[in-house]
Amino acid sequence: GDKAFAQFLTDEIQEEKKIQKHKSLPKVSGGWELEVHGTEAKLVRKIAGEKITVTFNINNSIPPSAEEDRQEQQKPDEQEPELTSTPNFVVEVIKDDTKQTLVLDCHFPEDEIGHEGEEESDIFTIQEVSFQPAGEADWKDTNYTLNTDSLDWALYDHLMDFLADRGVDNTFADELIELSTALEHQEYIKFLEDLKSFVKCQ
Protein backbone atom coordinates (compact mmCIF):
# COMPACT_ATOMS: atom_id res chain seq x y z
CA GLY A 1 0.00 0.00 0.00
CA ASP A 2 2.75 2.46 0.91
CA LYS A 3 4.52 1.90 -2.41
CA ALA A 4 1.39 2.75 -4.36
CA PHE A 5 0.83 5.77 -2.10
CA ALA A 6 4.38 7.00 -2.73
CA GLN A 7 3.94 6.53 -6.49
CA PHE A 8 0.67 8.42 -6.42
CA LEU A 9 2.36 11.29 -4.53
CA THR A 10 5.24 11.37 -7.03
CA ASP A 11 2.75 11.79 -9.91
CA GLU A 12 0.73 14.34 -7.97
CA ILE A 13 3.85 16.43 -7.21
CA GLN A 14 4.78 16.43 -10.91
CA GLU A 15 1.28 17.54 -11.89
CA GLU A 16 1.22 20.31 -9.30
CA LYS A 17 4.64 21.57 -10.39
CA LYS A 18 3.41 21.67 -13.98
CA ILE A 19 0.53 24.00 -13.13
CA GLN A 20 2.55 26.10 -10.67
CA LYS A 21 2.30 29.67 -11.93
CA HIS A 22 5.06 31.25 -9.85
CA LYS A 23 8.43 29.66 -9.26
CA SER A 24 9.19 32.47 -6.83
CA LEU A 25 6.64 34.45 -4.83
CA PRO A 26 5.11 37.42 -6.66
CA LYS A 27 5.97 40.88 -5.33
CA VAL A 28 3.42 43.30 -3.92
CA SER A 29 3.82 46.74 -5.46
CA GLY A 30 4.06 49.88 -3.36
CA GLY A 31 7.21 49.21 -1.38
CA TRP A 32 5.93 46.39 0.83
CA GLU A 33 8.55 44.12 2.35
CA LEU A 34 7.64 40.48 2.71
CA GLU A 35 8.55 38.15 5.56
CA VAL A 36 7.35 34.54 5.46
CA HIS A 37 7.35 32.15 8.42
CA GLY A 38 5.87 28.84 7.30
CA THR A 39 2.24 29.50 6.48
CA GLU A 40 2.23 33.01 7.90
CA ALA A 41 3.20 35.99 5.79
CA LYS A 42 3.76 39.56 6.88
CA LEU A 43 3.96 42.63 4.65
CA VAL A 44 5.54 45.74 6.12
CA ARG A 45 5.58 49.28 4.79
CA LYS A 46 6.79 52.48 6.41
CA ILE A 47 5.41 55.89 5.54
CA ALA A 48 5.91 59.23 7.24
CA GLY A 49 5.60 58.63 10.98
CA GLU A 50 3.82 55.31 10.59
CA LYS A 51 4.49 51.64 10.15
CA ILE A 52 1.84 49.52 8.47
CA THR A 53 1.92 45.74 8.73
CA VAL A 54 -0.42 43.29 7.05
CA THR A 55 -0.39 39.71 8.34
CA PHE A 56 -2.15 36.68 6.94
CA ASN A 57 -2.01 32.91 7.22
CA ILE A 58 -2.65 30.64 4.24
CA ASN A 59 -4.09 27.81 6.34
CA ASN A 60 -7.81 27.40 5.61
CA SER A 61 -7.62 30.21 3.07
CA ILE A 62 -9.22 28.34 0.17
CA PRO A 63 -13.01 28.65 0.19
CA PRO A 64 -14.60 25.25 0.90
CA SER A 65 -16.68 25.34 -2.29
CA ALA A 66 -13.50 25.53 -4.40
CA GLU A 67 -12.09 22.50 -2.60
CA GLU A 68 -15.20 20.48 -3.46
CA ASP A 69 -15.00 21.55 -7.10
CA ARG A 70 -11.42 20.32 -7.21
CA GLN A 71 -12.56 16.82 -6.25
CA GLU A 72 -15.87 16.55 -8.05
CA GLN A 73 -15.47 18.02 -11.47
CA GLN A 74 -12.23 16.34 -12.40
CA LYS A 75 -12.69 14.87 -15.87
CA PRO A 76 -9.63 12.92 -16.99
CA ASP A 77 -8.38 15.36 -19.60
CA GLU A 78 -9.42 18.54 -17.85
CA GLN A 79 -7.14 21.01 -16.16
CA GLU A 80 -7.69 21.25 -12.44
CA PRO A 81 -9.83 24.27 -11.62
CA GLU A 82 -7.62 27.04 -10.41
CA LEU A 83 -7.81 27.41 -6.65
CA THR A 84 -7.56 30.86 -5.19
CA SER A 85 -6.41 31.55 -1.68
CA THR A 86 -8.34 34.40 -0.05
CA PRO A 87 -7.08 34.61 3.52
CA ASN A 88 -8.39 36.87 6.23
CA PHE A 89 -5.77 39.51 6.90
CA VAL A 90 -4.99 41.86 9.75
CA VAL A 91 -3.80 45.40 9.13
CA GLU A 92 -1.93 47.13 11.95
CA VAL A 93 -1.20 50.83 11.77
CA ILE A 94 1.39 51.94 14.29
CA LYS A 95 2.01 55.64 14.73
CA ASP A 96 5.55 56.40 15.87
CA ASP A 97 4.50 58.95 18.46
CA THR A 98 1.74 57.02 20.24
CA LYS A 99 1.89 53.82 22.17
CA GLN A 100 -1.12 52.38 20.39
CA THR A 101 -1.76 50.27 17.35
CA LEU A 102 -4.95 50.50 15.32
CA VAL A 103 -5.86 46.97 14.29
CA LEU A 104 -8.27 46.26 11.44
CA ASP A 105 -9.42 42.70 10.76
CA CYS A 106 -10.25 42.32 7.09
CA HIS A 107 -11.60 39.51 4.99
CA PHE A 108 -12.67 38.66 1.45
CA PRO A 109 -16.42 38.00 1.35
CA GLU A 110 -16.97 34.80 -0.64
CA ASP A 111 -19.64 36.22 -2.89
CA GLU A 112 -17.53 39.23 -3.92
CA ILE A 113 -14.64 37.37 -5.46
CA GLY A 114 -14.66 37.07 -9.18
CA HIS A 115 -17.45 39.60 -9.72
CA GLU A 116 -15.63 41.88 -12.08
CA GLY A 117 -17.24 44.88 -13.62
CA GLU A 118 -18.80 46.40 -10.55
CA GLU A 119 -17.29 49.83 -10.41
CA GLU A 120 -15.96 51.01 -7.09
CA SER A 121 -16.91 47.80 -5.35
CA ASP A 122 -14.39 46.86 -2.67
CA ILE A 123 -13.13 43.31 -2.92
CA PHE A 124 -12.41 43.11 0.80
CA THR A 125 -14.28 44.27 3.87
CA ILE A 126 -13.29 45.38 7.34
CA GLN A 127 -14.85 43.15 9.99
CA GLU A 128 -13.47 44.47 13.24
CA VAL A 129 -11.47 47.43 14.47
CA SER A 130 -9.71 47.81 17.81
CA PHE A 131 -6.83 49.55 19.52
CA GLN A 132 -4.07 47.42 20.99
CA PRO A 133 -1.03 48.51 22.98
CA ALA A 134 1.97 48.75 20.64
CA GLY A 135 4.59 46.07 21.00
CA GLU A 136 2.50 43.62 22.99
CA ALA A 137 2.51 40.12 21.59
CA ASP A 138 -0.77 39.13 23.18
CA TRP A 139 -3.75 41.28 22.46
CA LYS A 140 -6.23 41.85 25.19
CA ASP A 141 -9.82 40.71 24.91
CA THR A 142 -10.68 43.47 27.34
CA ASN A 143 -9.98 46.15 24.73
CA TYR A 144 -13.11 47.43 23.00
CA THR A 145 -13.57 45.86 19.59
CA LEU A 146 -15.82 47.56 17.09
CA ASN A 147 -17.72 45.18 14.87
CA THR A 148 -18.52 46.81 11.55
CA ASP A 149 -21.86 45.02 11.06
CA SER A 150 -23.73 47.73 12.91
CA LEU A 151 -21.50 50.60 11.84
CA ASP A 152 -22.54 53.92 10.36
CA TRP A 153 -21.64 53.59 6.65
CA ALA A 154 -19.98 57.02 6.58
CA LEU A 155 -17.59 55.96 9.35
CA TYR A 156 -16.97 52.68 7.52
CA ASP A 157 -16.15 54.57 4.30
CA HIS A 158 -13.68 56.74 6.18
CA LEU A 159 -11.99 53.63 7.57
CA MET A 160 -11.70 52.19 4.05
CA ASP A 161 -10.25 55.50 2.81
CA PHE A 162 -7.87 55.51 5.77
CA LEU A 163 -6.58 52.10 4.62
CA ALA A 164 -6.44 53.13 0.95
CA ASP A 165 -4.32 56.17 1.87
CA ARG A 166 -1.85 53.72 3.41
CA GLY A 167 -1.71 51.51 0.35
CA VAL A 168 -4.29 48.93 1.38
CA ASP A 169 -6.78 49.15 -1.47
CA ASN A 170 -8.27 46.89 -4.16
CA THR A 171 -5.00 46.71 -6.11
CA PHE A 172 -3.20 45.67 -2.95
CA ALA A 173 -5.92 43.12 -2.14
CA ASP A 174 -5.65 41.60 -5.64
CA GLU A 175 -1.89 41.30 -5.27
CA LEU A 176 -2.32 39.82 -1.79
CA ILE A 177 -4.60 37.11 -3.25
CA GLU A 178 -2.00 36.42 -5.95
CA LEU A 179 0.78 36.20 -3.35
CA SER A 180 -1.26 34.07 -0.98
CA THR A 181 -2.31 31.69 -3.77
CA ALA A 182 1.32 31.24 -4.84
CA LEU A 183 2.41 30.71 -1.24
CA GLU A 184 -0.41 28.22 -0.61
CA HIS A 185 0.51 26.25 -3.73
CA GLN A 186 4.20 26.26 -2.80
CA GLU A 187 3.38 24.97 0.70
CA TYR A 188 1.01 22.34 -0.74
CA ILE A 189 3.76 20.97 -3.00
CA LYS A 190 6.18 20.99 -0.07
CA PHE A 191 3.60 19.13 2.02
CA LEU A 192 3.19 16.46 -0.69
CA GLU A 193 6.98 16.08 -0.85
CA ASP A 194 7.23 15.73 2.93
CA LEU A 195 4.38 13.22 2.91
CA LYS A 196 6.12 11.21 0.20
CA SER A 197 9.38 11.08 2.23
CA PHE A 198 7.39 10.11 5.30
CA VAL A 199 5.54 7.29 3.52
CA LYS A 200 8.74 5.95 1.92
CA CYS A 201 10.60 5.97 5.23
CA GLN A 202 10.78 2.40 6.52
From TrEMBL:
Gene Ontology CC: cell surface; extracellular region; mitochondrial matrix; nucleolus; plasma membrane
Protein name: Complement component 1 Q subcomponent-binding protein, mitochondrial
GO biological-process terms attached to the record: apoptotic process; complement activation, classical pathway; cytosolic ribosome assembly; DNA damage response; innate immune response; mRNA processing; negative regulation of mRNA splicing, via spliceosome; regulation of complement activation
Subcellular location: Cell membrane; Cytoplasm; Mitochondrion matrix; Nucleus, Nucleolus
Record InterPro entries: MAM33, MAM33_sf
Membrane topology of the entry: Peripheral membrane protein
GO molecular function: complement component C1q complex binding; kininogen binding; transcription corepressor activity
UniProtKB keywords: Acetylation, Adaptive immunity, Apoptosis, Cell membrane, Complement pathway, Cytoplasm, DNA damage, Immunity, Innate immunity, Membrane, Mitochondrion, mRNA processing, mRNA splicing, Nucleus, Phosphoprotein, Secreted, Transcription, Transcription regulation, Transit peptide
Compositionally biased residues, Basic and acidic residues: 67-78
Family: Belongs to the MAM33 family.
Gene3D superfamilies: Mitochondrial glycoprotein
Region of interest (Disordered), ranges: 59-87
